[in-house]
Amino acid sequence: MDMEVTRTAIRLFGLEIHWYGVLIVAGIGLGVWLAWKREGRMGLPRETVLDLALVCVPLALVGARAYYVVFSLDEFIGRPWWKVFAVWEGGMAIYGGLIAGVLGGWLYARAKKLSFWKLADLVAPSIALGQAIGRWGNFVNQEAHGALVENPALQFFPVSVSIGGEWYYATFFYESMWCLLIVAALLWAERRNRFLRRGDEFLAYAFLYALERAVVEGMRTDSLYWGAMRVSQGLSLLAAAVVAGIWAIRARRAPMALRIASPGCVVVAIAFAAWGNMWGVFAAAVAALAVTVWMYAGEFDRQMNRGEVQ
Question: Pick from 196, 215, 225: which is nearest to 278 by CA?
Fold first, then answer.
């Protein structure tokens, strides 16, 4: 599968509409639709999703671009000032969008006197769905891929993609598929009332995505850096550690060994990331995921046995 595809989706009255933008809009649109379908089931007022989207989507787009520009200033020095806004050329950082979007959601919740965590649970699968679709914009722009694949046995899609006759690890595809798995897992758990408290669905999204991104980011060749640390990798592991810590505090009846091991595995992953050992990051991330799921599942079973889960 060659990444050399046309970037232009439509030419209309002399204007070019790029696939990158089309895919981002498609991801946003389907994400809003998914949240709208679940709005009533989650006990929220009608049109909450549309109002929330009008606040959060613009903020998220601005935040995604601002994050990229701040950590890529060298790329814009000496270029026309308007290049800062040339999002059709690529350069949207998901973490900037998430930070700005969460801030917008918090402000909206306060203004409407709604539960922020209920809103966060509502949008969690939608965010993952939007990411899964938006990552294909990286395919079109020939970006967000991994290192050169020299082993001929691995030179095939979906392991790798061909760009200009060379094969690179298809990291954009890995993330897209993982985000689809997150959507499926969240909706499955939600349908079966597997989340114990408000906010757990969003925290599950944050934890699952953060661990995946920490691994995949270490494979990419276009990471944004802060000193020697890959910015998104460090932020991913920090987010995973915070979520693991929150669950460890909430799971008061879980064995102490699990409560310590959950955030502890993420701390080990952070150490490996700082060292630059990707296999260590991967192993620690898998361990963190396994321990946290085990701890959360055990807490769920204990509450079920006590009749605290409906």
Answer: 215
**Is residue 195 a contact partner of residue 121, using CB atoms and an 8 Å limit?**
yes
Q: Indicate if the pLDDT at residue 310 is higher than 50.
A: no
DSSP-derived secondary structure letter, 45: P
CA angle 274, 285, 218 (to 5 degrees): 45
pLDDT tens for each residue of 178-189: 999 999 999 999
Beta bridge partners of 242: none
C-alpha atoms less than 13 angstroms from C-alpha of 182 in its C-beta half-sphere:
31
User: pLDDT, tens digit, for every residue of 212-222?
Assistant: 999 999 999 88
> Structure pTM?
0.89
Residues 6+ apart with CB under 8 A from 102: 120
Task: Indicate the Cα dihedral angle 214, 218, 219, 225, nearest 10°.
Answer: 120
Mapped to the 3 state alphabet, what secondary structure does 37-98 carry? HHHCCCCCCCCHHHHHHHHHHHHHHHHHHHHHHHCCHHHHCCCCHHHHHCHHHCCCCHHHHH
Q: Residue 58, Cβ neighbours under 10 Å: how many?
A: 13
- Residue in 281, 289, 292, 303 with CA at minimum distance from that of residue 259: 292
Beta bridge partners of 11: 16
> What is the distance, to the nearest Å, from the Cα of residue 268 to the centroid of all Cα atoms in its chain?
21
DSSP state of 64: H
3-state secondary structure of 35: helix
